[in-house]
Structures are given as structure tokens and as C-alpha cells.
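pasting input
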Amino acid sequence: MIKIVILDDEKHCTDILQTLIERMRRNYQISGVFNDPFEALEFIENNEIDLLFLDIQMPKLNGFKLLDKISPIEFDVIFTTAYDQYAIRAFEYSAFHYLLKPITEKALVQVMLSWEQRIRKVNAEQWSLLKKVVEEENTTIPGKIALPTGTGYEIMKIEEIVRCQSENNYTSFVFKDGSKALVCRTLKEVERILPTKSFFRVHQSHLISARHVKTINRQGGGTIYMLDGVEIPISRQKKNYIDNLLNSMLKFD
Amino acid sequence: MKNLIFVILLLFCPIFLFGQIHLSRDMTLKELTQESGVRLLYTDKNKTFEEVKKIDFKSSYSSKDRATYEKVIWLKFSLMNTDNYNETYYIYSEMAYFSYYQKIEDKWRENNGGYLTPLKDRTERRTADFIPIQIKPYEETTIYVRIQEGRLSLSNQKTGIGTKAFFYETAYKQEEYNRPAAIFSLIYFAGLSMVFIFIGMMYVFNRETVYFYYMFYLFFQLLYSLIAYPEHPLEFINIARYYPEMSILLTETVQFIFIGFYVFFIYKLLDISKISVLGKIVRIFAWLCFLYAIGVFIFYLNDIDLRAKSLTFVISRIVVMPINLALIIWILFKVKHKLINYFVIAHLFFFVGALIAVYIAFTGLKTNPESIFYFENSADMVFQAGLLGEVICFSFALSLRVRLIQKERRDTVRAYIEQLKENEKIQQEMNEELDKKVNEKTEELLQVYLDIEKQRKLELQREFDQKLKEMETMALRSQMNPHFLFNSMNAIKHLIMKESLEDAMHYLDNFSILLRSVLQNSKYDAITVEEELEVLKLYLSMEKIRLGDEYSFEIKVEKNEELSMYAIPSLLLQPIVENAIWHGLIPSAKEKKELIISFEIQDTLVISIRDNGIGRSKSSEKESEDFEIHQSLGLKILRDRLALFNHFQETKIKMDIIDLEENNAPSGTLVTFTYKIAQK
């Protein structure tokens, strides 16, 4: 059984989530439902749990501060939030699961299925990455990103990413050292997370890092040769991006 | 002195024979007036020797007999060499002209002497007073002697025969007597020549009349020195001796010419021309000197005697000297010239020389062996020494004048250069001023331009910002169409009331997702068509729940993936679709109400929204006026947003609204968005 704890300062939120989880009829056991973060904290410290649904905006103690008080974090967390662009972006970077309120059944099912694929605990590195992004409030682009792969998470330096290629609902990453990773995210999602100034969607299936472009061939439809030797076509609509790309490339040297 | 020698000779004469003059080495000089055998004949000066030979000499020669220029004396006597030597004797005379004739091998030979005989005609060139004569031992020979006075001379008429020893003694004494004059005249001549050459050069190079005058002054001085000096050991100084008569004639002329040039020279040197009256008088004086010089020359060419000569000499000097002095004093008082001191010193030299010369001439120092002036032409020499001093002084004056002129020129040049510099400075200052002004003006203009530009930019920016803000708010307002919001609320309420809770939840989920999307997308200028399509799908699914089965909404997407490559202003399509449903389809009476939204990609993306509703014209008939305004406002906002998008984004979208017709009746509306192919 998977032991689940739900924490939200508003009761109707915990109610909905509890109802929806129960309606899934999986081997989930809701160990505790809390509207008070301190009560929840006490419970978490004294009981073994697997998964915590954690609201961020709480008047007494917000979700991040609460997590800060727990060390080590021997469970996994799915954040819930109504509307917080910064937090969402931070989750994306650190590859935390999250749910947007109002929580739809569809979204919950998707998250749970995704989570079940690789049940694990909060990784210390992942957690510190999240905190870093949240603390800096997205003023600076973080140097690292957590990528959910089939087996777990890979935390990579963003500048190491050479290119991303769409593989149906997954995206394959190619890194500077030649290694590859298949990430459980669509290219569209990846594009949204990575900094737009250095990553360019030159083609519907390709997102490339300007830092690692070897040559650009303007002839024909236009082609880009990447560091790993792969030839990437430029979409006709994005031909104009070549100049932006060039400008961006020049900034790195 | 010569008389003294003569007396001594007379006393010691051992042989005294009558009718024949006996010559021997023991004697010194035998004066002819003292000899008994000397016959005399007066003729006029044109009688030749051939004529005279035939005439009988009747009278004897005594010391009372005097030859003149017109009336010459012929003497005839025989000579006997009593020595056993082939000895040379000398006919001696101090006359202007004298000659003797001797028969050698049956031919009469003529030998000439005398100080007015041209040098080339003289037998003995070294001295004018002696003519050598050769007589063989114990031989007797007849001699004719002709003596003549010079036209303007007054000579000692002593004539005799002397031995070689006498000749040498006399010659030596003469030379000794002449020596100071010879040395001095050489110095004088050399010095003057040098100055002459120098001044000549100055004239050639400078072409200044002051040099011209001075040059000629010097030239005539030189000429005068040549004429004035009677005999010189150096041959080239004796040029005048070749033309002795002419020399005498020119003496006066040359002096006055150089005086004339001298006056002109002073006139120029001291710039006397500046003082009109004095200048005029000085000029006249100079011309008078020239006139007198020429007149005197012509006068002398005609026969003139010694008295006339003396008279002219005295008169000219009596007239000229005071005038000269007066002029000098006048000049001293009137002329204020830097060189006036030199002029004074030069004249002092001249006057001192002249005074001493006069003193010598009048006191007879020249003939006193004790005196330092006991030498040939001493008065003349002293006078010339004064002249030399004067010349040297004037040379200094001239060189100083050159310096003065140069200085003046230099000063002028310097002043000119100063002026030029000043001008340049002024010019430069003016240029700088001008440059500065131009720069200032340019800067000002530039500033004004910049300001205008800035202002314009600012205004444009403000305008744009305002427009943008307007657009944003309007767009937001149109997106958050209150009709849609409240209708949705109403729909949820309706579903709950119907107790179809699943539908209500589903509807609510979609509604929240839609709202989130709208909120999120409204932050971006552009989103991908893919994202817009998601919103559209949500919206349509919600409307579908509300409107029921008679409505058919179809979305045709050929290449879903490629839609992510196209940008679009967020919520561009939703209002069109909403409009098509609520104002096209709902009022329509058709059984099957269709809405087809297609995303076609061939060369480029074309989005078309087609409904089979009542069409725009009918729709506006049905609707209230308020709504029409709202609708057209909505459309205007749409167009503006599109224009803004086209302005800022690289992709360009063209919107067309086509009213569809079927059998001449409106059969719906077609709205297309066509992407222009990116060109760059």
C-alpha cells in the first residue's frame, strides 16, 4: 500500500483531493489529511509515509518552509497550487510533480500514473535545486535542470545540453559528452522550461542549443550542424530565426 | 741744386779747349752755355733738321738765350773723345723737348729726350733729362741739338754733356728724391684701384646711382693721379707719359670731372635731394663743374699760354673753393643724416691734406732738404694722401650705408613678417571663432535634431504603449467576454440542477483550464497555433455540452506537429468562433448547424473558420444596434491586434472575411487567416 498524506489549509481542497484519490480505487492508503501544517509536520516526522500532497500557499507555514524542517525527506512530494507561475516554473526545473487547482480528475490520474512509474524519495539535489529556483524567484536562469527519465531523475547542467529531439510524448536529450537521455516530457514542455535566449525550436521535432551549433548552412531550406555531428533541418517558418540564432551564438564566445 | 753742381763742375774742369768740346771720363758735366764752340740758331718750331742743316749758325750760345714753344733753339758743336775708351756720354737737358743729331756711318741719327716727349719716342726711357751718345776714342763728331720749351711749361733751360758717372749720380739722386712719391703713389694707386674695383662691383650688382657716382669719382681720381705723377719706376703707372701733352691738357678737366662726380656722390650719399633748395644748388654746382671741365679742355686744346693757364687755375679755385666750403657748411647744418659724421671726417682729411699741400707749396718745404716734405711732388702727394683718407672714409660710409639699407630692409622685412604673422594670427583667430561658431551651431542643430528625434521617438513610444495597453485591456475584455463567463456559470448551474454531476464537473474542469489558459496566454504577444488550438478545443467542447447535438463542430488538422511552428496572437480565433456560433449558427433555422475549423498546411498555413449560419448581413439585421456596435468594435479590436502582431512579429497573418452565398441567398460566413511565407 502506498501511504499518502494530504496537506492544504482549505478544507474543500483536501476534500476534493481525498475524494478523487479514493475514486481511483488503487492501492492507495490515505494516512492523514491535514489543514494545519504543524499538525501535518508532527505526523510526518513520526510516521513513515510514501507521498505527500502539499499545498504551497498556507498562511502559517508555506509548503517549502515545511519541507525545509524535515531532514532527510524520506518520501516524495506532489505540490498543489492554484496559480503561481514562479512555483510552477520551479517545479518544472526540478522535475517535481504538481497539480493545479481546481484539480481535475484527468490531471490527477496522469500525475499518479507518472509517479507510479518510478516511486522514490525526494532527492536532496532535486530539492536544493527547487529551493534555489524558488529563492531566486526566477530572476536568474538556473544553471541546472532536473530531467525525469524512465528510471529516475537526471540533474544536468543546462549548458551541457546540445539538442532535444521530439520522440512522440518523450524527448530525447543529447549532451555535450555524447551521452543521451530519454525524458518523460514533450518537446513543447521542454521548450517552455529551457531559456529562450539560448534554445531555439528550429524545427517541430528539434530544439537546439545555440551554444553547441557547429555550422549553419543557409543554402536550400537551411541546415544546422550540431556538435554531435547531427544535421538538423530548419523549418521554413523559422528561417528568420537564423539571425537570432547567430546573435545568440556570438554571445557565448 | 743743379746750379750748385754746375758751379762745382766749372771749378774743377781741367781741359778747356776752344771750338771743340773735349770729352773725357775725368769730367762730370760740360754746360753748353759755358763752351765756346757752340753755335746757335733760332728757328720756328716747324723747321726740320734737313732745313736747319743748310743754314749757317752764326751766333754763339749764352745763358741769356731762351727757347720757347714757338721759337726753338738749335745748337751745333763738335765733340772730341780724348780718352782711349769707347765711352758713353749723355746729352743733358731739363727742357720739355730736346733732341740731338749725330752722323754715324754717313747718316744723321736723331735721338730724343725731354719730359714732354712721349715715352715711346725717347732714347733713354729711364729718365727724360738724359740722351746717351757714343763717341769712339779720339774721334771728333759734329752734333746738332734742338731744344724746345713746352707749351705751358717753364723749364730750367740748362743743357750740357755729362759723363756716365754724372748720369748715374744724377739718376740716383733723382730716384732718391722721387722715392717717397713713388712708393706713396703706388700705395695710393693700388688703394684707389681696389676701392674702384669694389665700388664697380657694387654698382654692377646693386645698380645704385650712389655707386655709379663714386665709381666715376674714383676713376677720375685715378686718372688724375696718373697724370699728376710725372715719372715712375714702374712702367704701367707711366701710361700718361706716352701722351705727356694730352696729360697736361687734361689735368684741369679731370680734376673738375671728379669734383662733379664727387658732388653728385655726396648728393646721393646724404640724400640731399630731400632738401629741395640745397639739393637743387648742389646739383647745379655739380653740373657747373662738368661744364667747366669740358670748357677748360676745349680752351686748352686751342693755343693757350702759360699765363692763361695760371689764370684759369687761380680763378677756378678762388671761385670753386668758397662755393665748396659754403655748400659743405650748408650741408652740415641742413642735412640730418646718419652718415654726416663720415662726411665731416672725410672732408677733414681732404682739407687737412689740401692745407698742408698749400703750406708746402708756399713755404718751399719741398726744396728744403731738411724738411720731411723734401721729395718730388710732395705737395701733391700730401694732397693725395688727404684724398686717400677721404676715399677710405667714404668707403666706410658706403659700407655703413649698405648696412643701414640692409638694416632698414631687414626691419621692413621683419615688420612685414610681423604684419603677416599678425594677419595670420587674426585669420586663425577668425577661423577658430568661425569654427567654434559653426561647431556650436552644428551642435545646437544636432541637439535640436536629437531632441526632435527623441521627442518623436518618445511620442511614438508613448503612442505605441498606449495603444498596446489599450489593445491589451480591450483584448482582455473581449476575451473575458462576460456573456461567455456568465453563460458558462449558468450552464454549470443548469447541469447541477439537472443532476448530471459528471457533466457539471467535466464542464467545470474545462472551464478552469480554459480560464487558466486564457490568463496565461494573455501574457504573451504570441503563442503557437498549437496552443491556440488547445484553447479552441476546450472552448468548443464546453459549447458543445451547452448547445446539444444539433450543432456539429469539426476541427480539421492535417499536421498537428507542424502547428507548433506557427505563431499567433493569443485568443485570436476564439472570438471569431464564438461569434460564428452565437451570431451565425444559433439564429439559424437550419437543421444541421455546422462549424468547420480547418488548419491546412501546404505552402503555408491557412486557418479557416466556416459556418453555415445566417451570414453577416442577416445577422446585423436581427441584432440590436448596441450589439452591432459591440460586434464591430470586437472586429476592430481583432484587426488592430492582428496589425500589431504583424508589425512586431516576423510572421505575417492576413485575415479575410468572405460572405458565403448559395442560390443568391447568404449561406454562412468564412473567415480565413493566411500566413505569409516568411521571406528573408
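fyi DSSP finds 16 helices and 18 strands in chain B.
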